[in-house]
From TrEMBL:
Pfam families: DDE_3. GO terms for molecular function: nucleic acid binding. This is Tc1-like transposase DDE domain-containing protein. It comes from the Eukaryota. It comes from Poecilia reticulata.
Amino acid sequence: MSFGLSQRVVAAEVGRSKTVILHFLNDPEGYGTKKSSGRPKTISPALSRRIRLAVRQETGRSSTQIKAITGADCSPISIRRHLQEKGFRNKKRLQRPRLLQCHKIARLDFARVRQTWDIERWKKIPPEMFSTRHSGGGAIMIWGAFSFNGTMELQVVQGRQTAAGYVEMLQRASLMTEGPRQCGNDWVFQQDNAAVHNARLTKEFFQENNITLLDHPACSPDLNPIENIWGWMAREVYKNGHQFQTVDAIREAIFNTWSNVPTSLLKTLASSMPKRLFEVINKNGGATHY
């Protein structure tokens, strides 16, 4: 500095640290032009393509599974972050309910009572379930039921579900006519233990319409085959990493997918109940692989 000012004084005058002033004095021409080397990118374009292909092939894969499949030399966290940068959204896996001893006993009782039921009897039982799907613009809750012979009309649940709303929805779905049409006059309706299912108004509706219910043990989604339908639909709706920006878009995709559920899948799932019960008994009430 030709004026003989110290680094401390210059730093105070320009409002910068002494270290910055020192770097400038050491290399005035190069100051501010060098980029920090930083950590090199761990995901090359070729690896990025392999990662995205792995997701599109099976949307339910975890970042750890993707790392193993692609042979990536980066962490699962880096893979997850990379996918988010590419527009993919992370979906948390639904955890299996924790089975307490009381649940296992109830499941075992359920299975033993019905272990002699053959496929023909299970054909008469349409299971139902709620499911929530998300888009960039919000979420949509849907209700559906199916039998060995087909599906019932899909319903969109508006707002918080109440017993009155549930009954009205069953009426819109024409449960009283579709049940016997698909399963015969001695059909039985399967539902889980949601609060609205056990409400007084709901029970009165079933009694007034002479609808027989299948007692369903708590914490047992693996004994409700429609859970597998929702899994299949999720893979179809989000196939190839497809993302939805509006609720209307995902609603249309869900309804289109529901109308194209393979008949063979319905028959396979409806016919799987004897095997599910056998597995429950074999595992002393424990969870099945379904």
